[in-house]
Amino acid sequence: MAYDPNNVFARILRGEIPCKKVYENEFVLAFHDIAPQAPVHVLVIPKGPYVSMDDFTADAPADMQAGFLKAIGDVARLLGIAADGYRVLSNCGVNGHQDVPHLHFHIFGGAKLGRMIGKSS
Predict the structure, then answer these.
(1) Distance (Å, rounded) from C-alpha 35 to C-alpha 97?
(2) DSSP type of residue 51
(3) Average of per-residue pLDDT values in the chain
(4) Of 2, 24, 44, 105, which cross-links 30 as Cys (Cβ 3.0–4.6 Å)?
(5) How far apart are CA 56 and CA 66, in angstroms?
(6) CA end-to-end distance (rounded Å), the chain
(7) Residue 6: what are its φ and ψ, rounded to 5°?
(8) Pairing mode of beta strands 28-32, 40-46
(9) Cβ neighbours of 13 (radius 10 Å)
(10) Do 53 and 65 contact (CB within 8 A), yes or no?
C-alpha cells in the first residue's frame, strides 16, 4: 500500500480537517475517533508519511519511533485508563484490514473489553 498524501490523517495533520485533539508533541497527534467503539477510543498518528508499522519501523528515525511509543502510554495515562487497562491496536496491510494508508494506533478503554480475536478450531 503506497502512502497517499491526501489520506484523512494527512489532512488532519495539515489542519484541513478538524479533530478533537487529546495530545500532541513533536512526534504524534492523538485525537478522539469519530466513530468510537469503546467509551474511550483515541487514535495516535505519527507526524510523518508512514503507511504502516512495517514502513515505520523500517524507515522512521529512532527518536520518532521511541517518541511514538512513549506517546501511546502518555495518552493512556492522560485519559485515566492506564490503571484499569486498555487495548492498543494497529491494522497493517490488506490482511490486517488497514483502511487508511497512514500508520495509526487505536487506544480503547474505559470498560472491560471483550476478546479481540476468537479462538480458532
Answers:
(1) 17
(2) -
(3) 93
(4) 44
(5) 11
(6) 31
(7) -105, 15
(8) antiparallel
(9) 20
(10) no
Instruction: Decide if 102 is catalytic.
Output: no
Catalytic residue among 32, 97, 104, 106: 104
Total-model pTM = 0.92
- What is the C-alpha to C-alpha distance for residues 95 and 42, in angstroms, rounded to an integer? 23
d(CA 27, CA 106): 16
Amino acid at 21: K
DSSP character at residue 27? S
Range from 2-6, 104-108, 110-114 that averages highest in pLDDT:
104-108
Q: How big is the chain, counted in residues?
A: 121
Looking at the predicted structure, is the pLDDT value of residue 121 above 50?
Answer: no
Task: Give the three-class secondary structure for 101.
Answer: coil
